[in-house]
Design a protein that fits this description.
The complex is a heterodimer of chains A (about 180) and B (about 500).
Chain A (H helix, E strand, L loop, with lengths): L6 H5 L7 H22 L14 H23 L6 H28 L1 H15 L5 H21 L17 H9 L1
Chain B lengths: L1 H10 L2 H19 L4 H13 L4 H26 L8 H12 L3 H33 L5 H17 L5 H16 L1 E2 L6 E2 L13 H19 L14 H6 L5 H16 L5 H15 L11 H12 L1 H12 L5 H12 L6 H6 L1 H32 L4 H20 L2 H19 L5 H21 L12 H26 L18
Antiparallel strand pairs in B: 1-2
Helix pairs in contact in B: 1-17, 2-4, 2-17, 3-4, 3-9, 3-15, 3-18, 4-5, 4-6, 4-15, 4-17, 5-6, 5-13, 6-11, 6-13, 6-14, 6-17, 7-8, 7-20, 7-21, 8-20, 9-18, 9-19, 11-12, 11-13, 11-14, 12-13, 18-19
Classes of the chains: A mainly alpha (about 180), B mainly alpha (about 500).
InterPro entries (chain B): DUF112_TM (IPR002823)
Keywords (chain B): Membrane, Transmembrane, Transmembrane helix
Pfam families (chain B): TctA
């Protein structure tokens, strides 16, 4: 975390390395949407322009194209800030955690919310470099707290894991399926 | 008075009082942890509040919104890292005071100023409510359309230095809101034949991705930090009373906070900026500002804490959220089929009073809690940032998955999480996307109904409020362009500008 240094920094946002990259991506995406505008929206006959289903997507996409172009022009005429590719590398680095999240998402329906969450927090804590019993206990505590708060107390809708079906039928299994 | 008492009656249920306690204490803790912030917490808790009564859910979310700034001033003053983005200005004078050995005084002043402005702003709004209830029905479709447009314009031009990117992001938000099956003519809009896009992008999925998941990815992929803090000795309640030495500054700060909070798209930053500049200009010791000025601290903390109550006004009276947190709260209304707007303000004033009374109570609860718990809170702020990222990732899963148990929602949220990460690392704002998405939908509906009665273009602004809003939009854009031209004449060389990544611009 980097702190603000002057009063001016707080209210004004300056460009960062990678600005040109973002501006170019933004314009490309806007142009992609613009190219698809005729095929992805419909202009209905005998309907006022403002009530057309295609009116607001058109307004939004055209505005995106205009502002993205201005953003890119601004980036092109400004002095280059070193470190563009290091910045892109930082974004790529974060993809590992997207993968962790998606694995967690796909494991919950099989393993059940509590076991999957315990496994997820323990493994991720270990991966982040927090080793030792205290950190593992902290991760376990977080997992149990989150599941008890949301699933057991607030009763949010997360289906029981498929493996819970393997438990012997009876009140204990129903209890586990309902609350964990 | 009768309506006010009836509003108080609505609060007298165990669920609401519990929600108030959980929201206010939870908000202080969340605010005190640098790296979380109220937006992340509200995004995660939103789906859980859908099963609650609207007043219970809103009370809890409002509790988090209103109390997080109290907690946020603690790390701002003690370790020079604002707990929430809007406490950034608090570091300017709060941290130098800590270095001068006056941490207790600084914290007391910050809490005292927050409390005074919180109470003053709510009292002002309670008094103004009958008047607002009379004005709100004067807002027809075209006025609401123009007010929403004003919100979009303001949120774009508020991001000085990044206006083009903010404009593009606001338009992207409007675009996101249009994707899916169009509800009037039942035509497809940008679904690309995919079933997953038929119902469009869910606001909660986008919000969780942009605020919560992005913050988790950001914290997890950056080097670890575990800030150390110091103990605070002395009586916090006595320290809070020192704020009464700065009655004028606290009063002006609260007034500015209320006014700025009521205008969609403005919010805490502008309120703080105006309040701080005013305090500095009228001070006998302006040279101390930024070096440990007690006046500066009071100006900053009184302005930001007056905003939450005022920000509820455009939401409740017109159905227009002015910033990301109230945009999230709007979804609580929608889930319960309660449509905020002039009719709510006119017909259910007791509901409005109940919300204001809840905010009043939360300020009292927070002051009592924080008066006793500051030393305990200093231990919480030491949680290492990557471990915190793991906790946010775990919590984000509940938020997204509990919506409709959809893996597709999780994939979308992760995608928006990555987008949020890139934007945050670029010091680009995510708020214009959310406001564009919410206000775009409102503008579409209101423009359609307004144009049915408009024959000539000028008919659109032939009513006083509509004309006033249209003039305000034109003037704001004009002043902004003029300001940019003036700034370019005296521009700094690129090498002298600050290209660091700013934590305060990431939440």
């Amino acid at each position: 975390m980097v702190r603000s240094k002057t009063l001016q920094d707080l209210f004004k946002r300056y460009r960062r390395p990678g600005d040109m990259f973002v501006a170019a991506l933004s314009l490309l995406f806007s142009l992609f949407l613009l190219a698809n505008l005729p095929s992805q929206t419909t202009w209905v006959a005998r309907v006022q322009t403002f009530a057309q289903p295609a009116f607001w997507p058109t307004v939004a996409v055209v505005t995106m194209v205009v502002f993205s172009t201005l953003h890119l022009v601004g980036a092109l005429v400004s002095e280059r800030i070193e470190g563009r590719w290091q910045e892109v590398a930082e974004w790529v680095k974060a993809l590992e955690y997207v993968l962790w999240f998606m694995v967690y998402v796909s494991v919950v329906p099989w393993l059940g919310y509590l076991p999957a969450t315990i496994l997820f927090t323990l493994l991720l804590t270990w991966r982040l470099g927090y080793r030792g019993l205290n950190w593992s206990l902290a991760a376990l505590g977080v997992a149990v707290f989150v599941v008890v708060l949301f699933k057991s107390m607030l009763q949010v809708s997360i289906p029981a894991g498929a493996v819970y079906d393997l438990l012997p039928s009876g009140p204990a299994r129903t209890f586990i399926m309902t609350y964990f | 008075m009768e309506v006010f008492l009836s509003g108080l009656g609505l609060l007298a249920t165990p669920q609401i009082l519990l929600a108030l306690l959980v929201g206010s204490v939870g908000g202080v803790i969340i605010g005190a942890i640098p790296g979380v912030g109220p937006a992340v917490a509200i995004a995660i808790l939103l789906p859980a509040t859908f099963s609650m009564d609207p007043l219970v859910g809103l009370t809890m979310l409002l509790g988090i919104y209103g109390s997080s700034m109290y907690g946020g001033s603690l790390p701002a003053i003690l370790i020079n890292t604002p707990g929430t983005a809007v406490n950034a200005l608090t570091t300017y004078d709060g941290y130098p005071m800590t270095r001068q050995g006056k941490a207790l005084h600084a914290l007391g002043l910050a809490y005292g100023a927050s409390f005074v402005s919180g109470v003053l702003s709510i009292a002002a709004l309670i008094l103004l409510s009958p008047l607002l209830a009379k004005i709100a029905p004067l807002f027809g479709s075209r006025e609401i359309f123009l007010a929403a447009l004003l919100g979009i314009v303001l949120v774009v031009i508020a991001h000085r230095g990044q206006t083009f990117a903010a404009g593009s992001l606001a338009a992207f938000g409007i675009f996101l809101g249009t994707v899916g099956l169009e509800p009037v003519r039942y035509t497809q809009r940008f679904t690309f034949g995919l079933d997953a896009l038929q119902s469009g992008f869910d606001l909660i999925v986008v919000v969780l991705g942009l605020f919560a998941l992005s913050q988790a990815f950001l914290l997890l992929s950056q080097p670890d930090q575990s800030p150390d803090s110091q103990r605070i000795d002395g009586n916090m309640f006595t320290a809070m009373l020192r704020v009464f030495r700065f009655k004028r500054i606290a009063g002006v700060g609260s007034g500015i906070g209320v006014m700025m909070g009521m205008i969609p798209g403005v919010g805490e930053f502008t309120a703080q900026f105006l309040s701080y500049t005013h305090a500095q200009k009228t001070s006998k010791t302006p040279e101390l500002f930024g070096k440990g000025s007690e006046e500066g601290l009071v100006a900053s903390e009184s302005a930001n804490n007056a905003v939450p109550a005022a920000a509820m006004i455009p939401l409740l009276a017109l159905g227009i959220p002015g910033e990301a947190l109230t945009a999230m709260m709007l979804s609580v209304f929608y889930v319960h089929n309660v449509v905020p707007g002039p009719a709510l303000f006119r017909d259910q004033l007791d509901f409005i009073y109940a919300l204001f009374a809840a905010m009043l109570l939360l300020n009292v609860i927070v002051v009592v809690f924080i008066g006793f718990s500051s030393n305990a809170l200093t231990r919480i702020i030491r949680i290492p940032t990557r471990f915190l990222g793991m906790i946010i990732l775990t919590l984000s899963f509940v938020g997204v998955y509990s919506l409709r148990n959809s893996v597709t929602d999780c994939v979308m949220a992760a995608g928006f999480g990555m987008l949020g990460l890139v934007l945050k690392r670029q010091n680009l704002p995510v708020v214009p996307i959310i406001l564009g998405m919410v206000l775009g939908g409102i503008m579409e509906v209101k423009l359609r109904s307004a144009m049915a009665r408009v024959r000539e273009p000028l008919d659109f602004v032939d009513r006083p409020i509509a004309a006033g809003l249209a003039v305000a939009i034109v003037l704001l854009i004009g002043f902004h362009v003029w300001g940019v031209i003036r700034e370019r004449r005296s521009r700094l060389p690129e090498s002298e500008r600050d290209h660091d990544s700013h934590d305060t611009q990431q939440r």
